[in-house]
Amino acid sequence: MTVPETSAFPPGEPIEARLRRGLGARSIVLVGLMGAGKSTVGRRLASRLGLMFKDADHEIEAAAKLTIADIFAIYGEASFREGEERVIARLLREGPMVLATGGGAFMREATRARIAEGGISVWLKADLEVLMRRVRKRNTRPLLQTEDPEATMRALMEVRHPIYAGADLTVLSRDVSHDRVMQDVMEALDLHMNPSAPRPSSAMSQPMRVNVPLNQGRDYDIRIGRGLLDEIGIEARDLGARAAGIVTDETVAGLYGERVKASLEAAGLRCGLIMVPPGEASKSYAEFARVCDGLLSQKIERGDLVVALGGGVVGDLAGFAAASLRRGVRFIQAPTTLLSQVDSSVGGKTGINSPLGKNLIGAFHQPRLVLADTATLDTLSEREMRAGYAEVAKYGLIGDSDFFEWCEAHWSGIFSGGPERDEAVARCCRSKAGVVVRDEREDGERALLNLGHTFGHALERLTAYDSARLVHGEGVAIGLALAFRFSARLGLCPGQDAGRVANHLALAGLPTRLQQVPGGAGDPDALLDAMAQDKKVRDGRLTFILARGIGQSFIAPDIDGAEVRAFLEDELRG
After folding, report:
1. Catalytic residue among 194, 353, 359, 450
2. Which pLDDT tens digit goes with each residue over 186-231?
């Protein structure tokens, strides 16, 4: 077929030409932490597109005739940021170009506004290991002149990542060649500026599919891949819904709320948005009542849908509301964290917390669909990724030693967003789906999925579900290490396996000791009292998930409380 000359995309037009035409006078502005590769990738990108390349830090140094470190030392950071803002504004006026900015530039609201006006911002996101390996090659970074540069970098990531997530695009700066990252940036820009441009079918990876074959026509799919949030409207319409109530938290709403709402409305559904505060404290009686009343006010009926858009807290809360509303409304899980994609969104366990313990109020209510859009993981903080990874490792430790060995070899790819990420999510979902089908209501085998959780939930309760101190995945990581050390103490598990588990979790940046709980983990009696409210308690007797080795977990009923107490005393002493 001959394409008319008036076509927006001439046949065979190279991606470089499309990008230059789409940019107009705007610049491509690379943002991110030191070591993300902004300068190296930026130079390659500018050369490929035939544009100027400018490095804001170099421009500042040339104007001041001082190094960045000297400017910090002599004038201070505040003065540097003001000068940086002026330089970036000037460079944007000189565009189009590829502009690499300093790590702190995007943190300044006025600078973000100037970039939004005159450019397209691209966040180059790298994991901690990659960043540290790169920055150690240069000792001129003023913000890393501390006794513990790695701890400083972690702190910077926690503060800056939520702001960087506001960039127009996020591209993972993986541990691959800079040319590969440059190509990723070009493809992301092309999709952003020219969404309807013709592309090879291989340009978009096909989603993975895991089926949960429950009986009585309740089977559902878990779909895993990038960009799936945009399909939620079509999926909801195909389920026969006429309306959808989106339940999300305030953070996720700012990132994806309008996008999901637009997808649902474009498919002809009436929909509304209910927001809760982020964090475990939202799994409360008060928020549960508020969500239910909000859904009722939106006139959500039994044939309609509740959409749980967010992490594990939102999934549990929205799922329980769906289970309770009109005695059962259908719902879709749209998990946006690693932890929720590999674990909490699958299997139908919903609920809220009681002051007496975690997840003690709830219901089994299976979703009709799980859409795990792995692109949403690009905006997670390093801490959230680590917390989710504890649940990934758990699946290998329960009953798949080969998968744990795979995790030991590929964990950095999961963090950096390589193909390993989708593979890990799919493998975890397959494992959980198999367990759920065999034991939907946790009458037996499904309890194995709580490996590490008896300890972890107790720690969450003792820290008052304060995410500033401890998030769920961190409690699980400590719990996994404790479960294996307790198993070794009882003579059930080789000591080297317990050490291997703790070493791997620590390598991924997770805590493995009670002493690592900020503010303290309490005393043995407080921990035992918290464990007494665990869901697996029977007739007042503690039931633990223990291990005979990696991939060999089992349910251990009637554990002697005195042995647990002695173990905890030794652990607290270190």
Report:
1. 450
2. 988 988 887 666 655 434 457 888 989 888 878 899 999 998 999 9
Are 212 and 275 within one domain?
Answer: yes
Domain for residue 175, yes or no? yes
- Map tokens 């490996």 to a residue: 451
Set 114, 358, 446, 504: catalytic member: 446
Domain check: are 286 and 183 in the same one? no
For residue range 106-131, list pLDDT tens digits in order: 999 999 999 999 999 999 988 887 88
Residues 333, 257, single domain; the answer is yes
Active-site residue flag, 457: yes
Residue 504 bears catalytic tag: no
Domain check: are 109 and 62 in the same one? yes
DSSP 3-state assignment of 32?
coil
Answer yes or no: do 75 and 150 share one domain.
Answer: yes
The CATH number given to whatever domain includes residue 231 is: 3.40.50.1970
Phi/psi of residue 366, nearest 5 degrees: -75, 140
The answer to the question of residue 91 being in a domain is: yes
pTM over 0.85: no
Beta strands 553-559 and 542-547 are antiparallel
pLDDT for position 202: 39
Percent of the chain with pLDDT over 70: 93
Q: How confident is the model at residue 538 (pLDDT cuts 50, 70, 90)?
A: low
Task: Enumerate long-range contacts of 56-64, CB under 8 Å, 24 or more apart.
Answer: 56/84, 56/87, 56/88, 56/91, 56/99, 56/100, 56/101, 56/102, 56/105, 57/100, 57/102, 59/87, 59/91, 60/84, 60/87, 63/87
Clarify whether residues 111 and 243 are in a common domain.
Answer: no
Per the domain annotation, does 332 fall within a domain?
Answer: yes
Give the number of other Cβ atoms within 10 Å of residue 228's Cβ: 19
Decide which of 364, 380, 396 is a domain's last residue.
380
Q: Choose, from 472, 485, 504, 535, the residue flagged as catalytic.
A: 472
Q: Are residues 152 and 231 in the same domain?
A: no
Residue 239's domain comprises 208-380
Q: Are residues 168 and 219 in the same domain?
A: no
Q: Is 427 a catalytic residue?
A: no
Whether 10 is in a domain gets the answer: no
Query: Which residues lie closer than 8 Å to 6 by C-beta, 6 or more apart?
Result: none
What's the pLDDT tens digit per position in 393-417?
999 999 999 999 999 999 988 988 8
* Average of per-residue pLDDT across 466-483: 95
Catalytic-labelled residue, pool 235, 391, 440, 474: 391
Q: pLDDT class for 3, splitting at 50, 70, 90?
A: very low
Q: pLDDT tens digit string along 320-353?
A: 999 999 999 999 999 999 999 999 999 999 999 9
